[in-house]
Write a structure and sequence with these properties.
Length: about 260
């Protein structure tokens, strides 16, 4: 599969965001060990969970000694987007057995999802999809795991004065901006940022949870409103077309009636 053109295309697409992913992984690895987790546990968590945003979201809660239900709820809310991603993936990979779909689900990610949908906009199986996904997923996995494990192993040797936290923020911003490609994403991002700032005073970093819930709710609301507007436009177009046809039929009937008169 590595020799297939679509595999190489997937690798090429992920290399564009690879530096940002690597920086994010390095910062996350350092943060996990600095928060008090042991290196073996941090590595196990990174390999098992493989969700950078969820890992970063729950770390402050672990340090603060938050209740377990708060930690679980935060991780679930942060990863709610993968439910939507999985529903979209199903349109492409529904013919595969469950164990293979679960494996694909483990390797899926935000950047992979965006790249895949750009290459295969039609939600149906097509040649090259598995190869592209495999190339993108393997590249993204290595660009995350290798720097993340390196950050865990070198955490005690990397001083906080290096400002890796700020570097991680810049990496996240770069990845985020590359994924904003429509007005709904822009609106959801604006809502999330506003909610996070407005709820900043909440304890246990609960403003992150508030921002995620607000963004998901806003995204669903915007898409629902857009679908409603599209249905209204289609209905108005259909009604206008029907009216034109009726008028044309009446005009034709009137002309025929005039022609039949002596």
């Amino acid at each position: 599969m590595m020799k297939e053109p679509y595999y190489k295309l997937g690798v090429s697409d992920m290399m564009g965001t690879g530096i940002g992913i690597a920086a994010w992984g390095l910062v996350t690895g350092v943060a996990m060990v600095k928060s008090g987790l042991s290196v073996p546990l941090s590595i196990f968590m990174s390999l098992l969970i493989y969700a950078g945003s969820a890992q970063l979201a729950v770390l402050p809660l672990l340090v603060a000694g938050a209740p377990l239900w708060v930690i679980w709820l935060t991780a679930i809310c942060v990863n709610l987007r993968f439910v939507i991603f999985s529903q979209m993936w199903r349109s492409y990979f529904h013919e595969f057995p469950r164990n293979k779909r679960l494996l694909l689900g483990y390797f899926s990610g935000d950047v992979i999802f965006v790249g895949f949908m750009k290459r295969f906009p039609d939600a149906k199986p097509a040649p090259g999809q598995v190869a592209y996904f495999s190339g993108a997923a393997s590249t993204n996995w290595m660009m995350w795991q290798i720097p993340s494990v390196a950050g865990m192993l070198l955490a005690n040797a990397i001083p906080l004065s290096w400002g890796l936290g700020f570097a991680g923020v810049l990496a996240l911003l770069g990845i985020l901006l590359s994924m904003i490609n429509d007005r709904f994403t822009v609106l959801a991002t604006a809502v999330a940022g506003t909610a996070a700032i407005a709820a900043f005073a909440l304890p246990l970093k609960m403003n992150i949870l508030v921002a995620v819930v607000a963004a998901v709710a806003a995204g669903l609301m915007f898409e629902s409103a857009d679908r409603h507007m599209k249905r209204m436009k289609l209905r108005q177009t259909a009604e206008a077309k029907l009216k034109e046809e009726v008028n044309a039929a009446e005009s034709t009937a009137a002309n025929e009636s005039e022609e039949r008169r002596p």
